[in-house]
Design goal:
seven-stranded mixed β-sheet; 49 strands; Jelly Rolls; about 20% helix; Immunoglobulin-like; single chain; alpha+beta; disordered N terminus; eleven-stranded mixed β-sheet; 5 domains; 16 helices
């Protein structure tokens, strides 16, 4: 953010105070967030909530009180002062002042007191409120190149139209991707300028020839009939006194999917359109607005084809020089047309935007013998993104780029499993070195096949365009990273990287399954992979959006479909599978446990209640028997619907888990009668489940597969007096498989959880520290650089897929040991119990919790174990240590004692500590 004028006067002294406090203050506030984000734009004036983190060199530091002040106009207008509040609460402090104004800069500051008698310095942040009501847009209208004929509307979308005779040649939408422009004047004395803008399906906006912001594929995708997003930018420095120009690019996205090239589905919500309000505030207090209306001018743009599924074509010779700058000759441009608004709800996007997050240089360039692909660029990493092309040539020369995860035996790009044909195509304007990147599409790829151009280093003669440089731009949700993990086991480090690339590639404005052929929000992975993602990235805003997407997608009967937003209704289990739809219940619970956020639970309660009622209506004697089951488990057939475990087992187990969570959430929300109802309901499901699936003599569930046993253990379906016996059958099941992985998308999550919580970390190590059977090591051995869709990394399925990465959670909660107690919320009560297993001599992780950084790093040798711990201010921790006979425990060379507790791994010494840095040693007494 750019602090100007009164902002500088306000914040700079506070900043200097904070910097000084780093050395003089024993207790200080280190970071501020409003609605869990630093300096958010577009905050709903009704519900801002404030959080902060603290640091202190002392140990055992807790906050005892705080004071929050909110004000506007550079500190001149106080709107709320909490006064000194005696409380240790430091997250989600609700605003309780007078009603805030829309489209306004507000500042807030906080100070805190601790249990050591210290008072922190003030720390100041800011936020900008959004536009809530239609009148707040002050006359801005939706405009475009033209209105789409309503007869051509295709909502809901059509799945695989190319294989359906009646849809094969249907044209979806008009596909004119326009440029729009407007010139305006700015007076002297400009104090601040904010831009509120939405463009569908996506947009980019320029001021005076320069792109505003660094968003990619903005705004995030939604079900456009129900909800559309707008974005907010501070643009004071982008404007100049006198004449200015605004230029807008519009693209299709999921709003309008062409029925050409590769298409998983087609939609036609409408033609591309935009709405904009540029708010100018001057030092003398006067205001002006630039709004979207009929005074804007438009023409078809140089993007002649754009599809979220098939790629993009850009004809540089069609882009008018200087069109987005003042003084341009608009002759030949037509007046923009007022168009129908896309939805009744237009809200500020609160998720982190998708951006270019990494730039990957080419590793090798190979000439091929194919006429279709003359050169192959290898970037060495399979990632979501686009290319940046730098090329020179003649006007009209065409360069075609074909991205792919894999290559075939001839060295050509292989798109068989990822959606074909897909390409980036650039037509030169012939003016020196030209630089281009696609604006409104992306793909998952490692390789790029080139036709129509040669590398600049090539000795090939002729008049073909020459590529000066090509770069892979990795695009993803810009959620801040929250975790790091490292171990002495190189294979596990490589597995961690493998899974992280799949996570990164599939964090967009939904959690996608793959970044190429589908790009859809398949819901089972949001909760099954949830902990692994959460330890790596701040996903509170993304998952709150996903909850909202599910609320919109829920049917009148209560069904939550397998994907959200639901652009197309799939058939059978691909629309209605309990393990997928249960994300509607599990995600609000996770957001509460991870972040202490109750808003999602409260907002989603009607959806959750309707969904579990829907599951009950589909059950027979509390048993559900439909869906996809343990998708992609490893059996004798090709992967797909569950092979080793009955669909009814996983469906009923997740149904029980849903109802159990409803009981817990009802109690938290003060719904006492509902809590009792759900508790009794869960007991009935449990009894029915065990009657159907549990052999009372062998205590084996169903087929005895890894999933069949692990899932009941993990979700609480096993009676307490049978847990040890059932756990032993799980160990036997794993051993009988030769320590090989067989569980799939659903089951492997619960297998990792059951083994880890049951104290069988050594077994998890044995299963995964290998590359001779399908699994993580096997994928790496085959050359995978991102997690693949199938355990054996089959070429005929995706090779960058989010599911099956469940071992990531164990890296943090098992090897490093970072977790929270069962009763804890938002990691207020931390539990650190590392599993020092196998041939691993060292492991460690950091995790940025809502209260601050938690770290655990241990190292062992023949003399014992050294273990370093960091616990954030305002939290407590239980540290679980394995201490053998004759061993002593010291902390910073001081002897320690604690309470001995029984764990699944045996007796452990449990030491309770407060915040601070600790160094423990467990050494032999000899």
């Amino acid at each position: 953010m750019k602090f100007r004028n009164y902002l500088i006067k306000l914040v700079l002294p506070a900043l200097l105070t904070v910097l000084a406090s780093c050395t003089t203050q024993p207790f200080r506030i280190t970071s501020l967030t409003c609605n869990n984000q630093p300096e958010p734009m577009g905050v709903n004036p009704v519900n801002p909530a404030f959080s902060w983190k603290m640091e202190s060199p002392a140990r055992g530091v807790m906050q005892t009180a705080y004071q929050v002040v909110v004000f506007e106009n550079g500190g001149k207008g106080e709107v709320w002062n909490s006064g000194k509040v005696e409380s240790n609460k430091s997250i989600f402090i609700a605003y309780e002042g007078s009603e805030l104004k829309p489209g306004t800069i507000y500042f807030w500051k906080v100070k805190a007191w601790d249990n050591m008698g210290h008072e922190s310095a003030w720390r100041t942040g800011r936020f900008v409120t959004g536009l809530v009501q239609g009148k707040d847009w002050e006359g801005a209208r939706w405009i475009g190149y033209g209105e789409m004929d309503s007869a051509r509307r295709i909502v809901p979308g059509i799945h695989s139209p190319g294989s359906r005779k009646e849809w094969k040649d249907v044209i979806s939408g008009d596909h004119v991707l326009p440029l729009l422009r407007k010139e305006f004047s700015v007076k002297s004395g400009l104090e601040s300028a904010f831009l509120f803008v939405s463009g569908l399906g996506h947009y980019e906006i320029d001021l005076n020839g320069q792109k505003v912001g660094d968003h990619f594929l903005a705004p995030g995708w939604t079900h456009y009939d129900s909800l559309c997003f707008y974005n907010v930018f501070e643009v004071t420095d982008e404007l100049q006194k006198g004449e200015n120009a605004c230029g807008v690019w519009l693209g299709n996205g999921f709003y309008n999917i062409p029925n050409t090239g590769y298409r998983k589905l087609i939609t036609a919500f409408g033609n591309p359109k935009m709405i904009l309000k540029l708010q100018l505030i001057y030092k003398d207090g006067s205001r002006e607005n630039v709004i979207s209306d009929e005074s804007w001018k438009t023409i078809p743009g140089p993007i002649t084809n754009s599809s979220i599924f098939a790629g993009e074509t850009f004809n540089a010779s069609l882009e008018p020089t200087g069109w987005n700058q003042p003084g341009f000759n608009e002759s030949g441009w037509k007046q923009a047309q007022l168009v129908t608004p896309p939805a009744s709800r237009l809200e500020a996007e609160t998720d982190y935007p998708v951006k270019v997050m990494e730039r990957l240089n080419v590793k090798s360039i190979t000439r091929t013998d194919s006429s279709e692909t003359q050169y192959l660029y290898d970037f060495g990493q399979n990632a979501s993104g686009i290319v940046e092309l730098e090329v020179s040539g003649n006007k009209g020369d065409t360069v075609r780029l074909v991205p792919a995860e894999l290559i075939d035996r001839t060295g050509k790009p292989n798109q068989k499993a990822t959606g074909r044909p897909y390409s980036f195509t650039y037509i030169l304007k012939g003016s020196g070195i030209e630089r281009w990147s696609p604006r409104f599409t992306y793909y998952g790829f490692r390789y790029v096949g080139v036709s129509g151009a040669v590398p600049d280093t090539s000795s090939v003669s002729g008049n073909q365009p020459r590529i000066k440089r090509m770069t892979l731009l990795h695009t993803r949700n810009s959620a801040p990273e929250t975790g790091t993990f490292q171990t002495s086991a190189d294979l596990f480090n490589r597995i961690n990287t493998l899974i992280r690339w799949a996570i990164k590639s599939n964090l967009q404005s939904v959690a996608t399954d793959c970044p190429h052929r589908e790009k859809l929000g398949w819901l089972e992975q949001t909760h099954l992979m949830g902990n692994g993602i959460h330890y790596n990235f701040d996903i509170l805003p993304l998952y709150k959006k996903q909850v909202n997407d599910m609320m919109i997608a829920q049917t009148a009967e209560g069904l939550i479909p397998d994907i959200a937003p639901e652009y197309v209704p799939f058939a059978g289990g691909f629309r209605d599978s309990p393990e997928w739809g249960s994300a509607g219940v599990i995600l609000p619970w996770m957001l509460y446990k991870w972040y202490g956020d109750t808003e999602a639970m409260k907002k989603a309660w009607p959806m959750m209640a309707r969904y579990v009622a829907y599951l009950k209506s589909k059950s027979v004697n509390h048993i559900l028997d439909y869906g996809l089951g343990d998708w992609f488990d490893l059996g004798p057939k090709s992967p797909g619907t569950a092979q080793l475990t009955p669909v009814s087992l996983t469906a009923t187990a997740i149904y029980y888990y849903d109802v159990s969570l409803m009981q817990e959430m009802a109690a938290i929300l003060g719904k006492e009668d509902e809590a009792k109802t759900y508790a009794a309901w869960a007991d009935e499901i449990k009894a029915a489940f065990n009657a159907k699936f549990l052999d009372p003599e062998s205590l084996v569930y169903s087929t005895g597969s890894q999933t069949a046993i692990a899932m009941p253990l993990s979700v609480g379906l096993v009676d307490q007096d049978k847990k040890d016996s059932v756990f032993r059958t799980l160990l036997s099941s794993v051993r009988n498989s030769g320590f090989a992985l067989t569980a799939g998308d659903v089951g492997f999550h619960f297998l990792v959880k059951a083994l880890s919580e049951g104290g069988a970390g050594e077994l998890l190590y044995d299963m995964n520290a290998r590359d001779d059977v399908p699994g993580y090591g096997y994928q790496l051995k085959k050359g995978a650089t991102a997690l693949t869709e199938s355990w054996p990394a089959l070429e005929q399925v995706s090779n960058n897929h989010l599911m099956l990465g469940h071992l990531m959670e164990w890296f943090y909660t098992g090897l490093a040991g970072i977790d929270q107690t069962n009763t804890s919320v938002a990691f207020r009560e931390i539990k650190i119990a590392p599993q020092m297993v196998g041939k691993i001599n060292e492991a460690g992780a950091t995790f940025e919790s809502p209260y601050g950084t938690i770290s655990s790093h241990w190292k062992k040798d023949e003399s014992g174990v050294d273990w370093e711990i960091t616990i954030p201010v305002n939290t407590t921790a239980e540290l679980w240590l394995s201490v053998g006979e004759g061993e002593t425990v010291t902390e910073s060379i001081k002897p320690l004692s604690g309470e001995w507790k029984k764990s699944q791994e045996g007796e452990k010494l449990v030491i309770k500590v407060g915040s601070g840095k600790y160094r423990f040693s467990v050494k032999s007494g000899k």
